[in-house]
Amino acid sequence: NAGVMQNPRHLVRRRGQEARLRCSPMKGHSHVYWYRQLPEEGLKFMVYLQKENIIDESGMPKERFSAEFPKEGPSILRIQQVVRGDSAAYFCASSLGNEKLFFGSGTQLSVL
Amino acid sequence: GEDVEQSLFLSVREGDSSVINCTYTDSSSTYLYWYKQEPGAGLQLLTYIFSNMDMKQDQRLTVLLNKKDKHLSLRIADTQTGDSAIYFCAEIRGGYNKLIFGAGTRLAVHP
Questions:
Q1: How far A39 CA lies from chain B's nearest CA (Å)?
Q2: Chain A: which residues have CB within 8 Å of chain B?
Q3: Beta-bridge partners for B86
Q4: pLDDT tens by residue, A38-83
Q5: How far apart, in whole angstroms, are the C-alpha atoms of residue A18 and residue B2?
Q6: Who's near A81: CB < 8 A, 6+ residues apart?
Q7: How many CA atoms lie within 13 A of A60 on its CB side?
Q8: Is the peptide bond before A8 cis (omega within 30 degrees of 0)?
Q9: Residue A1 has pLDDT above 60, yes or no
Q10: Which residues of B touch A42 (CB under 8 A)?
Q11: Which residue from A28, A46, A2 is spatially nearest to B99, judged by alpha carbons?
Q12: Using CA atoms, how far apart are residues A25 and B88, in angstroms rounded to an integer?
């Protein structure tokens, strides 16, 4: 049973481009969480999704950021018109809806 | 305050015990967690404790919970160099198993 899979592992974008980060949850998990980690900081909650629904997006910036978790396929975190301040590690976690959250290895986004 | 707080750095000698402390904020948190992050890697769930427990032991790891003071600690017995990592404390906040993390404690183990 593979763990939470995130890709790409590293993503480099120039200012103004779009970044798409993908997360495949563990098999059977229908709950997905996205977190952002800035250098030397802890993880900050961004958004919580269940299949086809956004449940809590209280941690998402109001503009340029969006997330989806379609019926088929991975969850996508999309950042439009990236800026240098978006450079961070983005982690996805999944669960069955119980108290155990399992994290992926993250995507390191670097904005030049 | 609203933050989960941890000391930022701990240095121990190999073979000694390490104690990492955390203060959380939400007295209604049902679960409290310890995650381990090695350089360049994701978060590994080490252990977690249900809020009606005072203590949980799992091999070299002991978690102590003081609900009155909202204080959580992680003790690692016989600390090894492989335990060098950042340790994150987290609490559940809200109804969706949303985890709120502390800033992490960097554990350095030296010979």
A1: 10
A2: 4, 6, 31, 33, 35, 40-45, 48, 55-56, 91, 93, 95, 97-106
A3: B37, B106
A4: 887 789 999 999 988 999 999 999 999 999 999 989 999 999 999 9
A5: 33
A6: A15, A16, A17, A18, A64
A7: 20
A8: yes
A9: no
A10: 4, 88, 101-104
A11: A46
A12: 22
Q: Which residues in chain A touch residue B101, judged by CB atoms under 8 angstroms apart?
A: 35, 42-44
Identity of the residue numbered A39: P
A99 burial type by CB count under 10 A (0-12 exposed, 13-18 middle, 19+ buried): middle
Contact A99 B44 (CB under 8 A): no
H or E element in which residue A88 lies:
strand A88-95
Q: H helices of chain A, where?
A: none
Contact residues on chain B for A104, CB-CB shorter than 8 A: 42
| Whole-Å CA distances, B69 to A77, B24, B27, B66, B92 | 37, 9, 9, 6, 17
**Mean pLDDT taken over chain A:** 93
Read off the pLDDT of residues B19-28 as tens digits, 9 standing for 90 and up: 999 999 887 8
Give, in order, the Cα–Cα distances in Å from A37 to each of A12, A109, B53, B57. 16, 11, 30, 29
Phi/psi-derived region of residue B70, left when phi > 0, alpha when psi is between -120 and 50, beta in every other case: left
Contacts of A40 in chain B (CB under 8 A): 103
Q: Please answer whether residues A78 and A20 qualify as being in contact, where contact means their C-beta atoms are separated by less than 8 angstroms.
A: yes
